[in-house]
Design a protein that fits this description.
Blueprint (H helix, E strand, L loop, with lengths): L6 E4 L9 E8 L3 H13 L3 E5 L23 H9 L3 E4 L15 H16 L5 E3 L11 H7 L2 E7 L11 E5 L22 H4 L3 E6 L15 H14 L5 E2 L2 H13 E8 L3 E8 L9 E7 L9 E3 L8 E3 L3 E5 L2 E7 L4 E6 L15
Parallel strand pairs: 2-3, 2-8, 2-9, 3-4, 5-6, 6-7, 7-8
Antiparallel strand pairs: 1-12, 10-11, 11-17, 12-16, 13-14, 13-17, 15-16
């Protein structure tokens, strides 16, 4: 209705994406570079590898592992993936088995391995992924909570509103029949994927080796099947899914749970609001997507932090914005205490956005 007061809110996912999606690869073996990376680049999906920190650049020698002798990526190869926009998480020092592994040191597996890996990569490692099976989860949980922002579990995907950041639900992407002994829902098989089942959720999933003649097809995937899965996810979402690194999804969720909005002034020509709350510790990407419904078209935005610590008052510059129907979306640095004013021109002209509420 013309002249109605605009509404301002924070999107569940950026730009009202119907769901978030992250594809990860346990172990971080070199076949991921050769066979998974090209598929990700074809679709524009970032990937993520969870690596065995004590075996970088070496043939795998895990305690009782069925994937021994496959080669782990080196630190240099992992830095190459980071440069491609991928993420790297920690899958423990040795891919431990609790409590039977000889000489097992959980501090080394969870904590020392993280900081050693960060030193080699010169990059933060903020997510821990439980190796082997569920029995390895509880013994390390408190250590993980002290040193990471999240922990990926074995099963339980998709993740819906209010999910536990330290028990991220996971799904096994495989070219063969997956095990019936885990909570891997049949609705998540490629042919069964639907928007109705995934709406508003975060689908976090994992595979292991990515090879044409895939061994252990119950937990590994061919490039062909990976391609088919990505195409299906794009199809059911009309290309609107948010494909993102787990680090970025966790930053967004943690921020959305900690930061709110207080609308100060709203007309069809101008909206002013203030971010409230507090940043969670460890935030790296402090942006949230704000939806303004009922505002005339706006193309730019500036953020003022009041009281300003800087001369002139502008702490952050323009944010990304887009318009769909009656909604205008802004990707903003969600600084608690920051005041945002969006000012729109009449007559269908582009909007002018200014600092403060003047």
């Amino acid at each position: 209705m013309a002249g109605a007061t605009p509404e301002v809110s924070i999107c569940t996912w950026p730009f009202d994406a119907p769901f978030a999606y992250s594809m990860t690869y346990d172990e971080g073996t070199v076949d991921c570079l050769a066979n998974a990376l090209p598929v990700h680049e074809q679709f524009g999906f970032p990937g993520h590898v969870d690596v065995v920190a004590g075996q970088l650049g070496r043939r795998r020698q895990g305690w009782g592992s069925s994937l021994n002798d496959y080669v782990h990526m080196s630190a240099e190869e992992l830095r190459f993936l980071l440069g491609k926009g991928w993420g790297v998480g920690n899958h423990s020092w040795s891919h431990y088995i609790y409590p039977t592994q000889a000489g097992l040191d959980l501090w080394r597996e969870v904590v020392w391995s993280k900081y050693t890996l960060e030193d080699q990569l010169q990059h933060p490692v903020r997510i821990f992924t439980i190796p082997n099976d569920k029995h390895n989860y509880e013994p390390v949980l408190e250590l993980v909570k002290q040193h990471y922002i999240g922990c990926a579990y074995i099963d339980g995907a998709p993740n819906r509103e209010g999910f536990d950041l330290y028990k991220i639900g996971n799904f096994m992407v495989a070219s063969g029949e997956i095990s019936p002994h885990y909570d891997w829902k049949r609705e998540l098989l490629t042919d069964n994927l639907s928007l109705e089942f995934l709406r508003d959720s975060w689908l976090y999933e994992t595979s292991h080796l990515v090879m044409w003649n895939v061994p252990q097809a119950h937990k590994c995937v061919t490039p062909e099947d990976l391609t088919r899965r990505f195409a299906r996810l794009q199809d059911i979402s009309d290309g609107r899914l948010w494909a993102a690194r787990p680090d970025d999804v966790l930053d967004y969720v943690r921020l959305r749970r900690s930061v709110g909005l207080n609308v100060i002034h709203a007309t069809p020509e101008k909206v002013t609001f203030e971010f409230t709350g507090a940043w969670p510790i460890g935030t790296m990407d402090a942006r949230l997507c704000v939806r303004v419904t009922g505002l005339r078209p706006a193309t730019d935005v500036s953020v003022e932090y009041l009281p300003s610590p800087l001369p002139g008052g502008t702490l952050f510059g323009p944010g990304d914005s887009t318009r769909a129907g009656n909604n205008t979306y802004f990707m903003l640095a969600a600084v608690p205490g920051a005041r945002v004013t969006i000012r729109a021109h009449g007559g269908g002209e582009a909007a002018e956005v200014t600092d403060g509420d003047g």
